[in-house]
Amino acid sequence: MDVRLIRIFIKVVESGGLSAAQAELNLSLSTISEKISSLEHRLGLTLCKRGRGGFELTESGRLVFEECQRLFGSLDHFSRKVAGLKSNLSGNLSVGLVDNMITDPNSPIASTFATLSEIAPSLHLLIDTRSPGELLRDVVARKLDLAIGSFPRMALGLSYIDLYDEQQNFYCGSGHPLFAVPDDEIGIDLVRTYRIIGRSYWAARDIKIFAIATPHATVSNMEAEAFLILSGGYLGYLPDHYADPFVQAGQMRLIRPSLFSYKAKFQIATLEDWKSRPIIKAFIEVISKARNEGATSAKPASLHSRESR
User: Fold this and answer.
1) CB neighbour list of residue 17: distance below 8 Å, 6 or more residues apart
2) Quick one: pLDDT at residue 297?
3) Which of 82, 263, 269, 298 is most buried when burial is the number of CB atoms within 10 A of its CB?
4) Which phi and psi angles does 15 have, rounded to 5°?
5) What's 300's DSSP letter?
6) pLDDT tens digits for 136-187?
7) The domain 3-76 is classified under which CATH number: 3.30.70.1130, 3.20.20.140, 1.10.10.10, 1.10.101.10?
8) DSSP label at residue 196
């Protein structure tokens, strides 16, 4: 079987027709039609309807397309395995993470670890979860090779590589007096009359808009924040992916997002010499690719290295 014919067929299906695939394949319409006909002849199947009525896969074509996707997925897996056997990516890689990233659909961490296990089978990962400030401190001290999180304060001597944004929303619990108050009746002055939570690792980011000197409660992690919000006695910020189960259950309510919500930028923090360190460079290349592949319908976030000053 000619793999090139299969690749052309996949591209035609993904593009939605022969004409739409011309630019991607850099082939004429007649050549593409000839290649599809050749594949149909070899398979003994009619794969698609094409002509004035437009492009449409037959049932056989749909099944063949699904099998082709599986085939190339296996080939990619094979290629990564072979590349891993030839690579010199061995030793230890220490990675620091902030907590509760696992429920974030934007996070490419899991797929990055999966790819690393294939391309660097001899690599030993050391994973630790800490607050943003502790992560930066340990990267600077070379106790961690890199850290991933949202960092309110920048440490000197590090490079910061943008990954994605995490949505931060302001919430109250079902027992709070504001739970039933319409958004258009809730303003900064009203919120200031209630007890507001601050996250110790977030500096003053959570309370800045309310112009209060200190929060009414301080927490070191999101679970503690959620407990206080659920108590009905406090208002506070949580990432949308973390709070969503409570919102769906009617235990929390999002408060006036147009005024209080903001985005926290998630980044990789590592030493400025990371490009000369093969393991760290490979990790950053893999996670950047995973991030880009994960951004399907949404506009991909920018990826750039910003040197701290």
Assistant:
1) 50, 54, 55
2) 33
3) 269
4) -85, -20
5) P
6) 999 998 999 999 999 988 888 899 999 999 999 999 999 999 999 999 999 9
7) 1.10.10.10
8) B
